[in-house]
């Protein structure tokens, strides 16, 4: 096992954490714009005088939940690898795949309203998280 200083100096470790950082920025942006398109609240819209009709913009809350849930799963996997000073390049590659699929899933949730889509993406993210955390035990702990 390599020391923590050497582990943190590796570029692929930084790359994996950058993917989480960018995902947190997307989460923050969705957090800010979510109230603008939320149709489930009882707050009246003074400008239009009535409730907005549902559309894909009304599903931004679902995209927000997707990004939030996946960000915390990603954080868990990266933290476990960091504490164990484990995998580097494989983790970075998987982190960027996780990031890209999260963005695809968040966009898909806004346009497609099907349980099967959510189930398939849920399985994909579960397997990716399982692989990323398994790398921590294989190479670090």
In short:
Keywords: Membrane, Transmembrane, Transmembrane helix. Helices cover 74% and strands 0% of the residues.
Beta-strand percent range: under 5%
Q: What fraction, in percent, of the residue positions are helical?
A: over 70%
Low-pLDDT runs of 5+ residues are none
CATH level 3 topology? Four Helix Bundle (Hemerythrin (Met), subunit A)
**Number of distinct helices:** 5
Class from secondary-structure proportions: mainly alpha
Q: Any idea what the CATH architecture is?
A: Up-down Bundle
> How would you sum up the major sheet?
none
Gap between N and C termini: 9 Å
Q: What is the residue-mean pLDDT, rounded to a whole number? A: 85
- SSE string, helices as H and strands as E: HHHHH
CATH C-level class is Mainly Alpha
| Total domain modules | 1
Shape: elongated
Say how many strands there are.
Answer: 0
